[in-house]
Design brief:
Number of domains: 1
Helix content: over 70%
GO molecular function: transmembrane transporter activity
Radius of gyration: 22 Å
Keywords: Membrane, Transmembrane, Transmembrane helix
Largest sheet: none
Distance between the termini: 32 Å
Subcellular location: Membrane
Strand content: under 5%
CATH topology: Growth Hormone, Chain: A
Organism: Trichoderma breve
InterPro entries: MFS, MFS_trans_sf, UNC-93-like_regulator
CATH architecture: Up-down Bundle
Number of helices: 20
Length: about 475
């Protein structure tokens, strides 16, 4: 094993380590600390996908009709699948810092496309902007996830993930607040004021400059004194093969459906908001949904770092909390959307029936955020070395993109926008639980309280995992 692998392996062993006493912590320079780097990563997240999310949280990118924007988003996510897959090759040549800066560059053209469509009715720039966004965003998604997993100290990983994802949702809050201020008197259906997009374009254009403030991995200083090793040194062809091998690992294949039920919902609930609510109600939804997501995301991160509770218990309790509540939200959404398809309403906050329909949007936003954070928790316990962190992060984000490409593509069709997307997500939730449980139940299940630390996880087939799951051994019962 190389020195770099040794560094990562020793850190992996401490994945669930208790915090070091303050007297034993290494003094670090603030501008080299993990807290500083997570702040920079968060600001990049705000400037790029955060503002992208802000536009979509207004419902269909703030447009009056969701079909064009959902089709453009489907193109974005299709291209992100490809760029995610090859992101480790790009990291080999320009490093994680350069790849992060590159990843921010396609977002502003997409916002510009929405602006020209909103103001002048131009459609071609929406499609071009979506394509440029997809090429760069896949790299951004993969690299930021790897940084968020690898940079923090072990006892801060959950809180750091929650802090990082806060910025993504903060974009939604900013977008909702700006739009609410500009459209507070508009209690009818319609498109968002084009002035909103000028603010969005300016923020997204600054993303690459913010990314340049990130420390390279070798310059990061951690309180446990360990170096961050996050680089790719193998050949591009090796990386392509290694990424493909990681994808077919049973551990990852078993969570593909769980990833799907988690991220498919974004297009579904944003489209739901755009179809059935007034402009100012959509702005309110963007704002309140973001606030709720920030609260639940940081609480989840804090919970996952609680070493006083066993890792096994934290993984299982979180999984079943998500599974049960998501089922409740989708049942609620199914009933509401079926009724709305018959009546075709446009609700404003002054209407008596506003609360029952608006509430399900807020809870689906809640569910998306906790699902999102938990996916990184799972991947953290699958990767075993620095290369695998980048590859699994890329695969996670690429798989998310594939599901979202399908989701946005389908919701560009009227029947799927109204009810089909909700029905399909409900079905995905139901069939995803069993295979994901085969993975989650093994986290923290061995004698050391970790998932097979030395090997980074099990290479057993899904059939063997299922047999062990439903026929517990003494080792599993311990």
């Amino acid at each position: 094993m190389s020195d770099k692998e040794d560094t990562f392996a020793s850190d992996a062993v401490a994945l669930d380590a208790a915090p070091l006493p303050k007297a034993q912590r290494v003094k670090v320079k603030w501008y080299r600390s993990t807290a500083y780097n997570m702040l920079i990563l968060g600001l990049c997240n705000l400037a790029a996908p955060g503002i992208w999310g802000a536009m979509n949280s207004l419902g269909a990118g703030g447009s009056q009709s969701p079909q064009l924007v959902n089709a453009a988003n489907a193109l974005t996510f299709c291209l992100m699948v490809v760029s995610c897959y090859f992101s480790s090759v790009l990291v080999r040549y320009i490093g994680v810092k350069g790849a992060l800066a590159f990843g921010t560059m396609g977002y502003a053209p997409y916002a510009a496309g929405l602006y020209t469509n909103n103001r002048f009715g131009i459609t071609w720039l929406v499609i071009l902007g979506a394509a440029l966004c997809g090429i760069s965003a896949g790299v951004f998604w993969a690299v930021e996830a790897a940084i968020a997993i690898a940079y923090p100290e072990p006892w801060n990983r959950g809180k750091s993930l929650g802090f990082w994802l806060t910025f993504r949702v903060m974009g939604q809050i900013i977008g909702g607040a700006v739009n609410l201020g500009l459209n507070s008197s508009r209690n009818e259906a319609g498109k968002v004021s084009y002035a909103v997009y000028l603010v969005f374009i300016a923020i997204q254009a600054a993303g690459a400059l913010v990314a340049l403030l990130l420390n390279r991995p070798q310059h990061v200083q951690r309180q446990d004194g360990k170096k961050v090793q996050l680089s790719i040194t193998e050949s591009p062809w090796y990386e392509i093969k290694a990424t493909a091998k990681a994808f077919v690992n049973p551990q990852f294949l078993l969570i593909v459906l769980w990833i799907g039920q988690a991220v498919f919902s974004e297009a579904v609930y944003f489209t739901y908001l755009s179809l059935w609510f007034s402009v100012r109600a959509r702005a309110l939804g963007s704002f309140l949904g973001g606030v709720v997501a920030i609260i639940i995301g940081n609480l989840t991160g804090w919970w996952l770092d609680q070493t006083k509770v066993s890792l096994k218990a934290r993984a299982r309790y979180t999984f079943w909390f998500i599974a049960i509540t998501q089922g409740a939200w989708w049942l609620w959404a199914t009933v509401i959307s079926t009724r709305y398809r018959r009546t075709l309403p446009t609700y404003d906050w002054e209407d008596s029936e506003f609360g029952s329909g608006f509430g399900v949007y807020i809870f689906l936003t809640f569910g998306f955020q906790i699902n999102y954070l938990f996916l990184y928790f799972i991947v953290t316990h699958i990767a075993k070395d620095q290369g695998q962190v980048i590859r699994y992060a890329a695969l996670l984000r690429g798989t998310e993109s594939a599901w979202q490409a399908v989701s946005y593509g389908l919701t560009s069709l009227t029947v799927f926008a109204q009810v089909g997307g909700i029905y399909m997500n409900f079905a995905l939730w139901a069939i995803a639980i069993a295979p994901a449980w085969l993975v989650v139940r093994r986290i923290g299940g061995n004698k050391d309280g970790q998932w097979d630390r030395e090997s980074g996880g099990s290479n057993e087939s899904p059939a063997v995992l299922a047999e062990e799951t439903f026929t517990p051994t003494k080792a599993h019962e311990a």
